[in-house]
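Protocol step 4 of 6: record predicted structures for both targets in the notebook before any analysis. Target 1:
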Amino acid sequence: MQVSGSRMVYVHRLGCPKLDVDQEYLNNGLKNRGITFVTEPEAADTLIVSTCAFIGDARKEAVESILEGIEWKKEVSGRRIFVSGCLPVRYESELAVELPEVDGWYGFGKWQQALDHITSLSSVAITPSKSQSDQTKIPSSLESTLSRLPRSTSSPYAYLKIAEGCNRRCSYCAIPSIRGAYRSRSVSDIINECHTLIESGTSEIIVIAQEINSYGNDLDGKDSINSLLPLIGEQFDKLGKQGWLRILYTHPPLFDDAFIDSLRNTPHLVPYIDFPIEHADNSVLRAMRRATTWEKMSDWIDKLRTNIPEIALRTSVIVGHPGEGEGEFETLLQRLEETKFDHIGVFQYSPEEGTHAETLKQIPQEIRAAREDQLQELIYDQAEERAEGLLNKQVEVLLEEYNETEKVWTGRSIWDAPDIDWQVTFDGVGKKGELIEGRIIAAEPWHLSVVPA
C-alpha cells in the first residue's frame, strides 16, 4: 500500500539493542511505503514509542513516555501515537483500556498490522488483543517478510541479531514469556544481512541474541556459534573493508573450550566479551536458577584473559534477589573487588509477573536500593583505577561523530560497546566510521582522551 501524501514519523527509542533491531526492520518497512523519519517530535505528525518491559523501571519509563506522547498528540489535531516493542506483548489489553488515546499497540507478530496502520493517512480503529497469547504467536522462523527488508543505518555500527527468544528459566526473568522460545536464524540469512550492512558502510558489526552461545541448538545440528562467528568476521575481508566484530550477551553456563577457540580465531573480533555473572554467591546463583557456580565462572574468566590478550570483560549483576542476605551480598562485593571487571552494570532486583522469584520472600526495596548504591561506589572506584592503568596505552578507536564546537571527534575504543561503556574524545583528523590508532593522553571514569598514535 503506497501512501498518498506523506507521514512524518518520530521514533522515541527505549529498551535494548535487540529491540532496536526490531524497530529498524519496522522503520525500513515504513520507508519502503513512503514514510519520512524526522529527528524532532515537533516536526512529526506520528510518534512511535519503542518500549521495553523487562523490569519495573523500564515499564515505568515506557508508560511515562507514552503519557508524554499523548500530551504531544493533543497539542495538534491529526497527530497519532503508536506503541511498539515488549510492553504491548505483556500489557496491551490493560493499557489499551487505560490509554485509549494510543492509536495502535504492536508487539511481536503484529508487524504487518503496524505497517498498514502507521502508513494509513486516516485514523484507524484498533481492537486490542483479547489475550496475551494473541500477541505472542511468533513464527518459528525469524525470516519473515519484514525481517528480509534491507536495513540501513547512518551509524558506523549496527546490531546483527542472530536469534530470538530464550529457553532458560532464570528465576527473575520474564523474557521467555515475552519473546518466546529460542529461535536461531539461518546462517545464510545472517551472512546476507551482515554483507549488506558492511557493504553499506558499517564499520562495526555487533552480534546479539539473548544468549549467543545457544545459537544453532534448535537447527539441524550442523551450525553453531563456533562455526558462525568466523563466517561473520570474514565478510570484512571479502569486501576489502576495515571493521570490528563484537559480541554481546553470552551465557556463562554454556562456555566451553571450543567457544573460546572460536573467539580467539575469529577475524576482526575485538578483545571484548559480555559475561553476565548476575551474582557471585553460589546460594544466590542457585536461587536464580543460573545452572552454574562462581568457581566455574571464575575459571572461564581466567581462560578468557589468558587466551585473548588485552580483553575487556563486561558483566551485569543483580542485587536484592530473594535469598541474598548480608553475607551473600558481602561475598558478591568481595569477589567483584578481586575479579576487577572492566565494566559492570548493576540492576536492582524487580519482582516480575509470572516468574519463580516473584513467589519467594522479597527483600525490602530500601535494602535493595542501599545495596545498589553500595555497589555503584565499588564500580566507580574500580573505574578510577582502570582509568589510571590506561594512560599512555595505544588503542584503536572508532570515530562516530564530529563535534563542531569542540573541534574533536567522539567515538569508542575496541574495549567499549555503544551506549553502555566508556566514550572516547579523539583530537585528530579523520572521518566518520574510520578506525584509527591512537594514544590515551588522559583518562577518567567512563571517558578517554586520545590523540593520533
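Target 2:
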Amino acid sequence: MGEFDLIRRFFLPLAQQRRDGTLVAGPGDDCAVQRLAPGTDLVFSIDTLVEGVHFPGHYPPEYLGWRALAVAVSDLAAMGADPLCYTLALTLPAATEDWLEGFASGLAKASDAFGIALAGGDTTRGPLTITLQVHGSVPAGAAITRSGARPGDLVCVSGTLGDAGEALNWLSCDEPGPQARAVLHSYHYPRPPLALGQALRGSASAGIDISDGLLADLAHILEASGVGAQLGADKLPLSEALLALHNRDKAVALALTSGDDYQLCVTIGPDSFQSLPEAVRIQLTVIGTVEAGAGIRLTGAPARLDAGYDHFREYS
C-alpha cells in the first residue's frame, strides 16, 4: 500500500468529523485552513507517543488510536478549550492493513467522542511513533493557565486517580478479573473531562491535566504560580476497583504518583468554588489548599513515594 493510498483510505474520512465551518480546508491541500471568530484565542499543543516508552510493544491498535488522541485532547481540557482540529504525524515500521484499520477505527471513535476533526499530517517509515497536534479555542483571555494559583485557593481534582497506573500491572494478563478489567478500561480509553474544563473558565485560577502523576503535575502549577500547597492523602478520590486490588496505602501511592489518568487538577478560590453550578461542583474533589511558600506539604501519605514520571530523570 502506498503512502497516498494509505492516507485516502484510513485518514481522509476523519477530516469529516467536524462540520461547523471552522476547518475550512483539511487533508488534500499543502496546509490546513482554520477559521476563528473575532475575540477568540487559539490554543494548541503537541504530544508524541513512542512504542516502548508511552505504550507497550504490540499494543492493540484500536486502543492506541483512542489513547493517542485522548492524551493530546487532555491538554485542551486543562486549558478550558473547545476542541477544533488536530494533525497526525505517523511513523510506521510497515503499512500493515490490519493494524491501520484498527488504529484508524480507534482514532475515529475518539474523534467523534471529543468533537475534533483531522486537519492533515504526514506518514513516514520508521519505529512506531505517533505525534498529534491539537487545536482548540477559548474566548479571548479566558484560557486556564498554570500561573494563577493564590494562597487560600482550593486544590481540586476530577474523577478518580491511580487506576491507569495500576493497569500497567495487568496489560499482559490473559484473563483479568472484574476489578482489573475496570482499571484496564481506564488505561485503554481515557476520557479527558473537556466539558468540565470549559465550565471552569473564569472560575479556576490555575489548572493542569494529570498525565505524569498528581504530585509531579501539581508541582508545575505551584512553581509557575510561586506558591506551595497542603494536601490530605485521605481526601484523594480512589475507585472501588483500585481499592479492591490494593490496600489503601498502595492505592494512595498510585493516586499520588502514577501517570496516565488524564483528569484535571485545578485551583479555585473558595467563593468561586461555591458559586459553581452543582453539576460542575460535584465533578471535583477538594484535596487541599494553596499556601504561601513553596513545595507540597502532604499529610496521611505512605512513607516513601516516587516523584512522578520525567523522561530525562532517573529516580533512586
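Step 5 preliminary note on target 2. The chain has two domains: 3-139, 154-299. The longest helix spans residues 61-79.
Proceed to step 6 after PI sign-off.
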